[in-house]
Amino acid sequence: MSAAHPPRAEVLIDLSAVRHNVGLLAARAAESGAETMAVVKADGYGHGAAPVARAAVEAGASWLGTASLAEALDLRDAGITVRLLSWLDTTGVDFTPGIASDIELSVSSVQELARVADAAGRAGRTARVHLKIDTGLSRNGCPAYAWPDLVKAAAAEPDVDVVAIWSHLACADEPGHPSIDMQANRFATAYAVAREAGLRPLRHLANSAATLTRPDLHFDIVRPGIAVYGLNPVAQPEQLRPAMTFRSSVVLTKRIEAGESVSYGHTWTARRDTTLALVPVGYADGVPRTLSGRMSVWLWGSRRPVVGRVCMDQLVVDCGDDEPPLGAEVVLFGTGEVGEPTATEWAETIGTIDYEIVTGMYRPRVRRRFIGEAGRR
Ligand SMILES: *Cc1c(COP(=O)(O)O)cnc(C)c1O
């Protein structure tokens, strides 16, 4: 399927895959009576926040989640009206426009509560907040010793409506890890304390991994991120479909003789005469240089090794005695359905997680194209 205009560096985002994945996650959540908050922080994990958000809502998400208020405001500017929670900002950020735009805010301390209440006063409306309890991740969230004061202050604050209490799991991607139940127990205690303070909040705790493996922890809302994009954080098989394909095309082919070496440092030498294909993507386009000598691409009907170093703007594929035509499509990673590499395979090769691979694809030089919009095939 070489395109009429062969791509240089392009990520194809399949929104029908997003809808499929969210449909699956929302169905799991619904079995426990929970709603689904699709997490679209970091520009939708590098996939494009607004189009992903629309697809997620079409498929049954009734909430969206972002890290920063700026990300949440961008979604409102894009015309997205569903409930929206943002959870991590610096101390200088003014919450007023967020409250005015009906964005719900996470609060981890009495200082933050005071800032939100002030902003609510300025916005002339009640702020909807989700109080975050740190149950053991030791990152964002209120420590247990400060929790009773926070819930009491929140309950007494007229400009603030406490919608939910929430927390985040440290090891949900390792099902059976003892910290999961420990965190769930601390979450139950925090909930009891909130109720004693007179609050009647919703609860949410589950990321993708817990959405897939711990229905008992779904509570009122689940917060899947990575699974929305079709990447599976747990070993158990799921019918998720990766939404991102990274592709390029052949710009030049040439024969080299046995004994000739390829790319900077001459780290690879041809053992026999062979055909090389040049592909105009490199580490500036999101191909980690540490994949040099350890990656292959899908080209002209099969997997072929990338030889020599990955450069800033180009890499070289060994095609043996095959001669792919100029403009032939090169899939760097995709769904894996036909045998092409996946983002997960890249991550495993270089010792990271696929989250980092896909979020790293948001780059000015990489064109993003959406396919599979609703109502189209
Ligand atoms: C990123 C994030 C999620 C989603 O996590 P996944 O592992 O991608 O499902 C959920 N909750 C919070 C607080 C997050 O920061």
Automatic annotation (TrEMBL):
SMART domains: Ala_racemase_C
Pathway(s) annotated for this protein in UniProt: Amino-acid biosynthesis; D-alanine biosynthesis; D-alanine from L-alanine: step 1/1
Enzyme Commission number(s): 5.1.1.1
Span of domain Alanine racemase C-terminal: 243-371
MF GO annotations: alanine racemase activity; pyridoxal phosphate binding
N6-(pyridoxal phosphate)lysine: residues carrying this PTM: 41
GO CC list: cytosol
Keyword Calcium: no
Any Gene Ontology biological process: peptidoglycan biosynthetic process
Domain of life from the UniProt record: Bacteria
The keyword Isomerase belongs to this UniProt entry's keyword annotation: yes
Keywords (A to Z) from UniProt: Isomerase, Pyridoxal phosphate
Residues holding substrate: 139, 312
InterPro entries registered for this protein in UniProt: Ala_racemase, Ala_racemase/Decarboxylase_C, Ala_racemase_C, Ala_racemase_N, Ala_racemase_pyridoxalP-BS, PLP-binding_barrel
Active site positions: 41, 264
Catalytic activity as recorded in UniProt: L-alanine = D-alanine
Family to which this protein belongs: Belongs to the alanine racemase family.
Role this protein plays: Catalyzes the interconversion of L-alanine and D-alanine. May also act on other amino acids.
HAMAP family noted in UniProt: Ala_racemase
Protein name: Alanine racemase
Source organism: Saccharomonospora marina XMU15
Lineage, top ranks: Bacteria, Bacillati, Actinomycetota, Actinomycetes, Pseudonocardiales
